[in-house]
Structures are given as structure tokens and as C-alpha cells.
Amino acid sequence: MKKKIFTLIIAAALTAASTTALAAPIPRESTPLNATEEQTQIVENLVGDILDKVQSGKLGYTLAAGYANTHIRKAVMANQTNGHGYGILSPIAQNAIRVMRDRQLRPDAYAQAEQELKVLLADIINEVKNGMDMNTAIQTAYEKIYQSVNPSFNYDEQFSLDTCYRDIPIVGME
Questions:
Q1: Which pLDDT belongs to residue 110?
Q2: HEC readout, the chain
Q3: What is the pLDDT at residue 97?
Q4: Residue 23 pLDDT > 60, yes or no?
Q5: How far apart are CA 156 and CA 142, in angstroms?
Q6: Rounded distance, CA 11 to CA 114, Å?
Q7: Angle between the 134-149 and 122-129 helix axes, to the nearest 10 degrees?
Q8: 137-172 residue pLDDT tens
């Protein structure tokens, strides 16, 4: 669980460093790896009101997920998703709801992880402020975090392998 929190905070910290205000309600660190920005924006448009209620504590995960799935399914059937299907749009919404709900339920864990990551990733955060490419920053942050546990970890080598052969260190807070 700590690994999940650590991972979710990475992109949030880097995104916060690169922008003055977060206008998008979907946490970008929660999107599936194969999701595009266009798909994420489509989901934001479809379920933004639901995400607002989750974030404010007015909706729990189960109801929010059900409502989001219904909105997405109806939009797909009405050809309002620019050709993107339910199979990718629904997981974007589900992940966002899960992360938003978890942040609301465990704010102290997220605050602690954020402080620890700000120290570990201070140099990368400064580089992002100075214009570093976000994808490069995220990859560098992951590598730095994994190397804090296993100094010989090589990001490019491990992520070039099939997922079943990867040896990714377990990251967590003490």
C-alpha cells in the first residue's frame, strides 16, 4: 500500500512543480499507462461532476464508480467519445475515483509521502520548474526512487523486459 501512495505522489509533486494551478480534476498519476491525454480529457468531461462529489466527500467509491460507468457507457453508445471505447475510458474514471477517495480518507499518509518525496526528488522538481520534459522527469523520478532501495536498478533495462520478468524493487515508507 505504501508503494502505491509513493507512486501516486510522484506525478502529483512533479505536476505541481510544472504548473501554477491544477485545472484538471483527474489525477494524471492515476491514469492507466496506455491511456492518452485525449482519453483522459474525454473522461473528465463525462464524469467531472462525479469526481467533484468524490473529492468533496459527498460520494463514496462504489456509487461514484457506478455513476461514472453509466455515464461512460451511454456516451460510448451515443458515439460521443471520439471513437474511444468503454474498455479504456472506464479504467481512467475508476482509477481517478479510487485515488481521490483514498486521498480523502488518508490525508496524513499522503502528506507524509509528499514531504519525503519532495526531499528525495528536489533536484528533479527544480528541473521541471526550469522546463524539463514531464515524461523524462517522471521516468527519472521513478528511477531515483527505485535506486533509493536498490542502487543497481536500471530503469531502461527493467522496463524493456516483459512485465513478468521485471525485477522492480518494493518501495515503501518506514
A1: 86
A2: CHHHHHHHHHHHHHHHHHCCCCCCCCCHHHCCCCCCHHHHHHHHHHHHHHHHHHHCCCCCHHHHHHHHHHHHHHHHHCCCCCCCCHHHHHHHHHHHHHHHHHHHHCHHHHHHHHHHHHHHCHHHHHHHHCCCCHHHHHHHHHHHHHHHHCCCCCHHHHHCCCHHHCCCCCCCCC
A3: 95
A4: no
A5: 11
A6: 10
A7: 170
A8: 988 998 999 998 899 999 889 888 888 898 888 876
**Cell matching residue 88:** 479504456
Q: Cell numbers at residue 143, please?
A: 528511477
Count of C-beta atoms within a 10 Å radius of residue 94: 19
- Of residues 2 and 158, more confidently modeled: 158
pLDDT in tens, 61-84: 999 999 999 999 999 999 999 999
Radius of gyration of the CA atoms of the chain, in A: 17
